[in-house]
Each structure stands twice: as C-alpha cells, then as structure tokens.
Amino acid sequence: MSIRAKISEIVSCKADAVWSVADIAYSDYKNDFSCAIVIAQRYSYFLTEAEYDEEKYNTILLETTRNLNKKIGSLKILLDSYQIKNYVPAAVQNDEINLRVPFSFKEAAVHAGLGWIGKSDVLVTKKFGPRVRLGAILLDYPFLTCAKPIKKSFCGDCQVCIKACPDQALYGIDWKPGLTREDLIDYKLCNLKRSGFFMEYGRKSACGHCILVCPWGLSKSK
Ligand code: SF4
Ligand code: SF4
Known about the structure:
Blueprint: H1 3-12, E1 17-23, E2 35-42, H2 54-81, E3 86-87, H3 105-111, E4 116-117, E5 123-124, E6 132-139, H4 160-164, H5 181-184, H6 187-195, H7 198-201, H8 209-212
Helix pairs in contact: 1-2
One iron/sulfur cluster binds next to α6 and α8.
C-alpha cells in the first residue's frame, strides 16, 4: 500500500474528515520541511443554530479535537516508521494580544485546497462547511504531490454569518488571497466578548454562531 493510501486510511476511513497536502514554501518552516498534511475534521455532531447551547457546542469542539488529535498521533507513528522527519505544530496561540499561532492551520488548509476563508474569517470546506477542526503535521518528504491552493471565495452574496454575530465583529468582506484577518474581522472584539465568560466558567465562550449558521455543508449534517 502506498504511503498516500496509508494516510488516507488513517484520516478519512470513516468519511468524517477531508485532508490534503500543502506546499509550505510560503511559511517560516520552509527550510526544514517540504510540505504539510492538513486535516479538516468534521464536527462530531452538527448542532443547528435553532438548538444552540454554548456548553453543548463547547463539548462538540472538544470531542472533535480529540478525534483529530488521535489521527495526528497515528500519522506521526506512521511517518516515524518510515523515518520521515516530521513535526506537529502547536495549536495554541503564542500570545493573548495578537492571538497568533506559530503555524496557521487555516492558511495551510487554503494552500492544501481544502477550502476558502469565509466572511466569518474561518475556513469553509465544500463538504462540511466551516464545521471542522483543523490540524496539520509538517514533513520533510518531497514525494507527496501537493494540492493547488484555493484562490477564491465561494461565499457569494451570502451575509448569514455577518447577521448572526451578536457583537457585529464581522465586516462582510469577501476573502481573496492577500487579505488578512484584520480585513475581515475585528478579532480583538470577538476575543474580548468571548473572554467575558472567564469569571463564571473558567474558559472563553465557544460562541460560534457565525459558524453554525453557514449554509455550506449543511446537507452532510448527520
Ligand atoms: S465567534 Fe461569535 S463573536 Fe466571534 S465573530 Fe463569530 S459570532 Fe461573532
Ligand atoms: S455564512 Fe455565508 S458568508 Fe458566512 S462563511 Fe458561510 S457562506 Fe460565507
């Protein structure tokens, strides 16, 4: 079995994820790794906006992250067994001010052709919409064919996420390559409002109204 087939077996055997390979020549890791396997793991359950419950939504995020991390762990074991140099970048943000991660999974997913950046500033896949958790593993292995990056948004005239945001943090701008997070969202406002949860719950609010309303991927909801 080819290494690509083995990766597929680990990542998408239950049809609950899409994955692809990104050329990471654009990234700070380009001197150490040739590409990244990028995974968009479908939410463990598709909560509708009508049945919204923050705690339930937070549990879905945790469950989905657990499913994703299991796959990343298995991929690491596979790559190690082939003695392919690999690295799992941290998913946590560097700091609370700029809210940046060392390696952006969202940017990698666009380069891997998995989706585009929606007006909600999250990755939108055609299959599952934005109801995914993203992960990646970097590897030094030039024999996997990299996908073509996505270069346009498929949001069209939709404004649903803009209207759903309780804090009007989204600007309603259609993404195209070159636009930054700051062009699409007041991310500091989004973070500030979600951080308001801390005193009572010891964590930020998962919020996610802008994600749950997106029409993309809804037909794959159950
Ligand atoms: S996560 Fe919540 S506050 Fe942030 S943009 Fe989405 S709906 Fe608005
Ligand atoms: S809700 Fe509409 S505008 Fe927002 S990301 Fe989804 S398709 Fe794009």
